[in-house]
Amino acid sequence: MPSWVFWKGILMACSSKEPRRPEGPDILDTRMVLKFSHTPVMLSEVVSFLKCSARKLYVDATVGGGGHAKAILEASQPSGRLFGIDQDPDAVRAALENLKLFGNRVTIRQGSFSKIGNLVRETYSGCIDGMLLDLGVSSYQLDMPLRGFSFGKAGPLDMRMNPDLPMSAADVVRDCNEEELAGIIFEFGEERYAKRIANGIVKRRRISPIVTTQDLVQVVLASVPPAARRGKIHPATRTFQALRIYVNNELGELKNFLEDAPSLLCPEGRLVIIDYHSLEDRLVKRAFRDWERRGGYKVVTKRVVTPSDEETRKNRRSRSAKLRVLEREDQYE
Ligand SMILES: C[S@@+](CC[C@H](N)C(=O)[O-])C[C@H]1O[C@@H](n2cnc3c(N)ncnc32)[C@H](O)[C@@H]1O
What we know:
Layout: H1 4-14, H2 27-30, H3 43-49, E1 57-60, H4 67-75, E2 81-86, H5 89-98, E3 106-110, H6 116-123, E4 128-134, H7 139-143, H8 169-175, H9 178-189, H10 194-207, H11 213-223, H12 237-247, H13 250-260, E5 265-275, H14 278-294, E6 297-299, H15 309-314, E7 322-328
Parallel strand pairs: 1-2, 1-4, 2-3, 4-5
Antiparallel strand pairs: 5-7, 6-7
Helix pairs in contact: 1-9, 3-4, 9-10, 9-12, 10-11, 13-14
């Protein structure tokens, strides 16, 4: 099936029924019980590639709990400013709290980075000296059972970074047909047993609904061959990744960002992107090359930058990170 089906077709096909909030305790009331915690990846590399200094304006388009943002603000004392964006209201609350010591040097807004052009233009009139995009989910989102991102935590099968998104992962496994599910799991999870898992989902939901992370884990475990249960990664890893990417339209969001963000940069302004899987990395690499070919931009990282052994030892979640940098060369019109 051509891949555009997954950008457009399945979204339509699978969202035809009423979206439903996954079952479980009231999510909003209990969400902030867990302290927002996340270790920023390749922190010193980010600060150094952004050439942080005073009087400059930086955008952190995935501000999360503000870990990178704090380091950028510290490195651009006393007058560097930072505009932080996140689609998750929990992240916005955490960033506001963690960055309040920087006073009016910081502005935080809830929004999607696919709308980066509008968000920046509504807030500032000039160009941006440095921009950061640190993709994926935060440790807080993964560790918070009620967000439903992790196969290791029992909770509602939700996975929405922005709780206002129309469809949760439970809606997807309820509404998509077998072929669509197999397509999503194969395309976004690169899961070799996608067809078996899709078949397992459809059989299971005829008997009882799949509404929790553990319901889905059981289906995956029962669907894959025994050898796959003994592999290095948990058999449900790729299925969870696929549903998360699909529910949050992660690749569509990234594509839109890559079309707009470089044009917001000042001359010598830099865009730093950290991605965590091959589907994202392919898009970033291609887009940076395209901007360079068009002229006025250069790819600073001729070789992709990865975390040191020490960092991956200390922070396992950094192990798949890849960092790339694009710089604007010309005077812009
Ligand atoms: C890896 S975390 C960023 C952590 C942050 N750099 C820090 O140091 O705390 C990724 C963040 O991006 C946010 N995010 C993901 N997709 C987004 C999108 N399309 N628009 C806005 N924020 C998004 C997530 O909600 C999450 O908080």
